[in-house]
Design a protein that fits this description.
Distance between the termini: 44 Å
Low-confidence stretches: none
Number of helices: 9
Helix content: over 70%
Order of helices and strands: HHHHHHHHH
Radius of gyration: 18 Å
Strand content: under 5%
Largest sheet: none
Number of strands: 0
Number of domains: 1
Oligomer: single chain
Mean pLDDT: 93
Length: 197
C-alpha cells in the first residue's frame, strides 16, 4: 500500500473527519445543552442522525463492501444539507444573542460545509471502486480500508470483519428506510421546518 501516492491524504482526511464530524459536534452538543440553546440542540441532533451514515460506512469498509464508497459519498453530501436546510432553526440560531457558543457553532457549520464539499469532490473518483469487482482489490481502493481496519483493531478486536459488515448492512437498510420515509412522507407535510423533528 505504500506505493499509493495519496495515502497520506487519505489518513489526513480520516483525522479531519474525526475532528470536524465527531469531536467538535459532540463538544458543541454538550455546550448547547448546558447553555439551553434549543435551536442548536435540535440542529445538532439532526446532524447526528444524518451523519450516522458515515459511521455505517466505516463498518461497511471494515468488511470491504463496495457499497461503502457510495454510502460515504452520499454521507458527505447529506451532512451540509442537514446543517442548512431548516429555515426555522437557521432563523432561531441567527437571532441568538452573540456569544462564544454562537461564534464557534457558526464557524464549525461553515468549516464542515467546506470540508464536505471538498471531500465530495475528492471522493468522486473513488466511486469506481464500488462499480468494478476488480477495482476494489487494487491499492487505489484498498487504501481507504486502512483506517477503518485500525478502528476495528481498537474497538472490535475480537469481532470478525464479516460480522461488522453485516451490522453495517443492517444499519444501512434502516437508514435508507428512514430517509425514504422522511423524503416521501414527512418532508411534504412539514417542509423546511424542523419543529416536528
Amino acid at each position: 500500500m505504500n506505493d499509493v501516492w495519496f495515502r497520506q491524504f487519505v489518513w489526513i482526511d480520516y483525522r479531519l473527519a474525526v475532528l470536524f464530524m465527531v469531536i467538535i459536534p459532540l463538544i458543541l452538543l454538550i455546550w448547547a445543552f448546558v447553555q439551553k440553546v434549543e435551536g442548536m440542540q435540535r440542529l445538532l441532533t439532526i446532524y447526528w442522525r444524518v451523519s450516522s451514515l458515515l459511521a455505517i460506512t466505516i463498518y461497511l469498509m471494515i468488511a470491504q463492501y463496495p457499497v461503502s464508497f457510495i454510502s460515504g459519498l452520499i454521507g458527505l453530501i447529506l451532512v451540509p444539507i442537514s446543517l442548512w436546510f431548516w429555515v426555522d432553526l437557521n432563523d432561531e440560531i441567527e437571532y441568538q444573542p452573540s456569544s462564544p457558543l454562537k461564534l464557534i457553532f457558526n464557524s464549525w457549520r461553515w468549516a464542515i460545509t467546506v470540508y464536505c464539499v471538498l471531500g465530495t469532490i475528492a471522493f468522486i473518483p473513488f466511486v469506481s471502486c464500488a462499480l468494478s469487482p476488480t477495482a476494489i482489490k487494487t491499492p487505489y481502493c484498498q487504501v481507504w480500508f486502512e483506517a477503518p481496519l485500525l478502528f476495528k483493531e481498537y474497538f472490535h478486536y475480537n469481532s470478525r470483519p464479516g460480522f461488522l459488515g453485516f451490522l453495517g448492512i443492517i444499519g444501512l437498510v434502516i437508514y435508507v428506510l428512514y430517509l425514504s420515509y422522511f423524503v416521501l412522507v414527512k418532508l411534504g407535510k412539514q417542509g423546511r421546518s424542523a419543529i416536528q423533528q
